[in-house]
Amino acid sequence: MAATSVVVLDRGNNTTCTVNLFGATVVSWRVNNQEQLFVSKQAIFDGKRPIRGGVPFVFPQFGDWAFGPMHGFARIARWHVEKMPERLPSGDVEAIFSLMDDDFTRSMWHFQFRLTYRLILREKELHFNIGVYNPSKELTFSCQMLLHTYFKVPDVRRCQITGLHGCMFIDKSRDGVMYQDTREVVTINECTSRIYQNTMQEHIITNVVSGRKMRIQKYNFPDTVIWNPWAELAKEIPDLGDDEFPNMVCVEAGRIATPIVLLPGTAFEASQILQVM
Ligand code: TA6
C-alpha cells in the first residue's frame, strides 16, 4: 500500500472527509468547501513520520513512551479499510477502519488488540466512534487513547474554549505541575500543553474558520488536552512552519489520566462528534 493511500467520504455539497490510511489520520474535513482542520504546509507524507495536522490517532500511549514512539504506534501504522465509504439512508456517509496487532505493534507492545474506527460524515458534523477490544484469553492490558485534533483557526489568540472551567490540569510546559483552571473560558496566548482532567462533555471553540463556532461532544473521553507550541517551540518542530502556530489549536479528547484497563475478552468504546455551528 502506498504511503499516501487515502479514502474519501463525500456527502455532496463540497462536504468531504479524507482519511490517510497511514495512521487512519483524518487529514481533511471540508464543510461546504470550507476546510475545518489544520494540516501544516510542512507536513511530511513519507509513511514513516506522523502527519503534522488533521486528527492523528494516539494509542496505546500518550506522550513519551519507553517501548516505542511518542504518542504510540497507531498514528504511524497502516490501518485497514473495514468498510469503504457508503451512503446511509439518512444521506450521511460512513466508513470503517481497523487496526490489529501484528509484528510491528508486537515489537513494541506484546498485546493482542483490535481497534475499530468508524467515521460518519453528516451535513455539518463528523462523528468518530472508536472501539478497542482485547481478544486475548489470558492477558489484561492498559492503554491510553486520544484524538489529537488540530483545528484550523484564523488566529488562535482570538479563540475561546469552554468546558474547562474548574478542571484540574497537568501543565506539560511547566514540569508537569498540577493546577486548577478557574477561568470561565480558556484563551491561548503562549506555549500551551495541558492535560485537563474530567472535563465537560462539551467544548465550544469560538472564532474558528469564517468566525464560526465549533462544538466538540465527547463520550467516554474524560480528558481534554489543549496544545499550541507558540513561536519558539514551533521553530524546533521541523514539519511545522515557523509562522503557522497562530492558525492551529489542538483540542484533544481522550482517556489519559486514568488508563483504560481491558480484561481478556472485554472492549472499550468512546466517541467524539465535531459540529460546525
Ligand atoms: O498533545 C499535546 C502534545 O503531547 C504536546 O506536548 C506536543 O508535544 C504535541 O503533543 C505534539 O506531539 P508530536 O509528537 O506530534 O510532535
UniProtKB/TrEMBL annotation:
Gene3D superfamilies to which the protein is assigned, alphabetical? 2.70.98.10
The UniProt record lists the keyword Isomerase: yes
Using the record, list the residue span of the signal peptide; answer none if the entry has no such feature.
none
Name the Enzyme Commission number(s) assigned to this protein. 5.1.3.15
Q: Name the chain's protein.
A: glucose-6-phosphate 1-epimerase
Known catalysed reaction(s)?
alpha-D-glucose 6-phosphate = beta-D-glucose 6-phosphate; alpha-D-galactose = beta-D-galactose
Q: Where is the active site?
A: 148, 252
The record's listing under Pfam families reads: Aldose_epim
A molecular-function term among this protein's GO annotations: glucose-6-phosphate 1-epimerase activity
Q: Does the record carry Isomerase as a key word?
A: yes
The superkingdom listed in its UniProt entry is Eukaryota
Q: Per its UniProt record, what PANTHER family does this chain match?
A: APOSPORY-ASSOCIATED PROTEIN C-RELATED, GLUCOSE-6-PHOSPHATE 1-EPIMERASE
**Pathway assignment:** Carbohydrate metabolism; galactose metabolism
What does the UniProt keyword field contain? Answer: Isomerase
InterPro entries, per database record: Aldose_1/G6P_1-epimerase, G6P_1-epimerase, Gal_mutarotase_sf_dom, GH-type_carb-bd
Q: Name one GO biological process term.
A: carbohydrate metabolic process
Q: Which organism is it from?
A: Leptosia nina
Q: Which family does it belong to?
A: Belongs to the glucose-6-phosphate 1-epimerase family.
Question: GO cellular-component terms in the record?
Answer: cytoplasm
Q: What does this protein do, in the record's words?
A: Mutarotase that catalyzes the interconversion of beta-D-galactose and alpha-D-galactose during galactose metabolism. Beta-D-galactose is metabolized in the liver into glucose 1-phosphate, the primary metabolic fuel, by the action of four enzymes that constitute the Leloir pathway: GALM, GALK1 (galactokinase), GALT (galactose-1-phosphate uridylyltransferase) and GALE (UDP-galactose-4'-epimerase). Involved in the maintenance of the equilibrium between the beta- and alpha-anomers of galactose, therefore ensuring a sufficient supply of the alpha-anomer for GALK1.
